[in-house]
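During the no-cost extension, the postdoctoral fellow (Dr. R.K.) reprocessed legacy sequence entries with the updated structure-token encoder. One reprocessed record is reproduced below for audit purposes.
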Amino acid sequence: MQVDIHAPYKDRVQQALGDPNLRVAVSKATDRMSNARRASMDAIEGQQLRSQVRKMKEHVLSNWPDYLEQLESNLTRNGCTVHWAEGVEDAQAIVKDVALQNSANLVVKSKSMATEEIHLNHALEEAGLRVVETDLGEYIIQLADEPPSHIVAPVIHKRLEEIAEVFQDKLDMPPTREPTKMTSLARAKLRQEFFAAGMGVSGCNFAIAETGTICIVTNEGNGRMVSSMPRVYVVVMGIEKLVPTVEDAYLQLQALCRSATGQQLTVYCSMTSGPRQEGDVDGPEQVHVVLLDNGRSRMLARGYGEALLCIRCGACLNACPVYQEIGGHAYGGTYNGPIGAVTSPALAPEIAQFKELPHATSLCGA
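Re-encoded structure tokens follow.
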């Protein structure tokens, strides 16, 4: 059963609670990720690391305009084109115009919550462009025509059998329950798209103000392909995704990887400081960075700045007993779980749209 994200909150919750397969899939996956995180954090001074990252993020918010100006200046110096987007429509128009001006009829994307937030795929498709998600989880839910249900693991709500049905229905794959066969088919399909794409789009895990560097972390390598193979590369980043220095980037990278997946470091950490330079053998000819506000400055002004400290690791979702019961779609917004219950109302132009989300808590402190 698919939860109707456009239904009233209580109806969404009832739909989710009525699907035992959803609870099994979400509970197994969140338990696995929580255990991996716990082991990884226990191996170091995890609480000290969290405190250091929090202090750094608080410093950024206290000096937000200065660091944004520094980032813009260094990105521009590096040859990037910087765009400021106040809201959803601004961001959509910027990315769409870049694609159309470069005749990029095929757009490949790396996993990005910011592009989900601005409904970028829909906007590009309405303009006649084809958009392909290249993160495996995002690719699966794109085939299934569903939104992601977790910040880190977008297809966490589906069991293996359901994913196999999607592959059979959408990719004409012979019946199988072997993950390696499904992954191999997806890899072959996506590789063709990488070579044909005219533009790549990604989010940003964090941007380094002192160097004008965009950082994205993945485990599949698709982020590296999206950011280096197409002629044009576009980054959509929330304006809170800032770190002052390279040293701060390394600090946040440790916290993000350990909290999100329990890894010391993800398989790939791609850093882009600008377009291809003379003598470079690869890389994009153009790099565009869209700095997205969309309510973030309003959040800080209204006293919700603490939510902007979030590094999007998803650990609070994995620990949340409410999320484990109802999954992500029942929250009805781009961001779900405990952070979504705070962020969605705060980012929304009309807070009444998410007025019931504060009730999606057991007050457990996750």
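The first helix runs from residue 9 to 17. The mean pLDDT is 95. The remaining legacy entries will be reprocessed before the final report is submitted.
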